[in-house]
From TrEMBL:
Keywords for the protein's UniProt record, in alphabetical order: Cell membrane, Coiled coil, Kinase, Membrane, Phosphoprotein, Transferase, Transmembrane, Transmembrane helix, Two-component regulatory system, Virulence
CDD domains cross-referenced by the UniProt entry: HATPase, HisKA
Lineage of the organism: Bacteria, Bacillati, Actinomycetota, Actinomycetes, Propionibacteriales
Stated name of the protein: histidine kinase
Histidine kinase domain sequence ranges: 156-370
Chain coiled-coil ranges: 122-156
Naturally occurring in which organism (per UniProt): Microlunatus elymi
GO cellular component, one term: plasma membrane
Record-level Gene Ontology MF annotations: phosphorelay sensor kinase activity
Protein's cellular compartments: Cell membrane
InterPro entries listed in its UniProt record: 2C_sensor_his_kinase, HATPase_C_sf, HATPase_dom, His_kinase_dom, HisK_dim/P_dom, HisK_dim/P_sf, Sig_transdc_His_kin-like_C
Catalytic activity line of the entry: ATP + protein L-histidine = ADP + protein N-phospho-L-histidine
Listed PANTHER family: SENSOR PROTEIN CREC
Membrane topology type: Multi-pass membrane protein
Entry EC no(s): 2.7.13.3
């Protein structure tokens, strides 16, 4: 019994001594490469076992033959432990180096290096890094598109303001020189020009408020059916001048109640209908429909006969300042659809456009009052 106690005490003492040395080594290398800390952490338990075996062999007075066999097995185990420790350490260090290179390359959106042999944790981190890079690339692409849209908007607005201002200056000079025979007609022309410029400035102000996401008016329960009826009545005179047939299709027994800002929604839907009438040729038709989906959301659709939009431009239709090709025309500042999108999104709704038949279909989905 006394021998067992001595062996147990020596074993515990040896393990504590080796563990203390390992802890000191880890403290000394805490700011060094992780390679050394992994080697120390992997070899310390093995060395503790080796020391205790040697002590026990010495205390038990084994024969020379038995002692050599045990020591030989211990040496082989140490070699295997050192080799495996170095192999694992090399893989982890290589993986962390690749991960660090990938993080460094995020600024330039460089793809992280890939390859087999990564531990599961580092592989997951590398996958997250790749996902982050893709998101950064998308964000940078959106930023470039937004910058391009702003440049186009400034260019269009400069043209839209400079041309009427030049006309007003010429008209004022002509009135001052007394070379205008029809003074009342000239004044009406000046008033019309000022009205167009005022409308443009109003659109800019409205777009700014919508993009800021600030509530413009108190939300209340309203009827989409009544809103569409008002929009149709306001747009009918312009449709007749364009020789465009405006058709409204509404449910008979559903007022399509939602919670929202009636003025903002009238403007948004009105912009869609006005845009459809403007780009539909004489003899064409614009159809305005509304219905409630199975989920309870209200869907408003505006279909026109504009001839369609190129597929590559469908994603830019709602960008401020976008005017498209000649098929869509070049009048207006290109703010109406951007304002419509801002209003719909401020109501937590969805707006989309697609080519349908001989024209386009703009679709607005407004959620249930509970969702708003």
């Amino acid at each position: 019994m006394t021998d067992l106690l001595i062996i147990a005490a020596m074993t515990i003492l040896a393990c504590l001594l080796v563990a203390g040395i390992g802890w000191i080594a880890l403290r000394l290398t805490r700011h060094a490469s992780i390679r050394y800390q992994l080697i120390i952490a992997g070899l310390t338990p093995v060395l503790a076992v080796a020391v205790t075996v040697i002590i026990n062999v010495w205390l038990m007075f084994l024969s020379r033959h038995d002692s050599l066999v045990i020591l030989f097995a211990l040496a082989v185990s140490l070699i295997v432990a050192v080799g495996l420790s170095l192999l694992v350490t090399r893989r982890i260090v290589a993986g962390t180096s690749r991960l660090g290179a990938g993080i460094t390359g995020l600024a330039g959106l460089q793809p992280p290096s890939t390859g087999p042999g990564l531990p599961a944790e580092l592989a997951d981190a590398m996958a997250d890094l790749t996902s982050t890079r893709d998101k950064l690339a998308e964000a940078r692409a959106r930023e470039r598109a937004a910058q391009q849209a702003r440049q186009e908007l400034v260019r269009h607005l400069s043209h839209d303001l400079r041309t009427p201002l030049a006309g007003l200056r010429a008209m004022a000079e002509a009135l001052e020189d007394g070379i205008v025979a029809d003074v009342p007609g000239a004044m009406r022309q000046i008033q019309a020009t000022v009205s167009r410029m005022d409308s443009l400035v109003g659109d800019l102000f409205e777009l700014s408020r919508v993009q800021d996401g600030l509530p413009q008016h108190e939300r209340r329960m309203l009827s989409v059916t009544e809103l569409i009826t008002d929009v149709a009545e306001q747009t009918e005179p312009a449709a007749r001048r364009q020789q465009v047939r405006l058709t409204v299709d509404l449910p008979d027994h559903d007022r399509l109640a939602i919670l929202g800002d009636d003025d903002a929604l009238v403007r948004a839907i009105g912009n869609l209908v006005t845009n459809a009438v403007r780009h539909t040729g004489p003899g064409g038709a614009v159809t305005l429909t509304a219905s409630r989906s199975a989920g309870g959301a209200v869907t408003v659709a505006v279909s026109d006969g504009c001839g369609g939009i190129p597929e590559q431009d469908l994603g830019r239709v709602f960008d401020a300042g976008w005017r498209g090709d000649e098929a869509r025309g070049t009048d207006g500042a290109g703010l109406g659809l951007a304002i419509a999108r801002g209003v719909v999104e401020s109501h937590r709704g969805r707006i989309a456009v697609s080519n349908a038949g001989s024209g386009c279909r703009f679709e607005v989905e407004l959620p249930l009052p509970q969702a708003s």
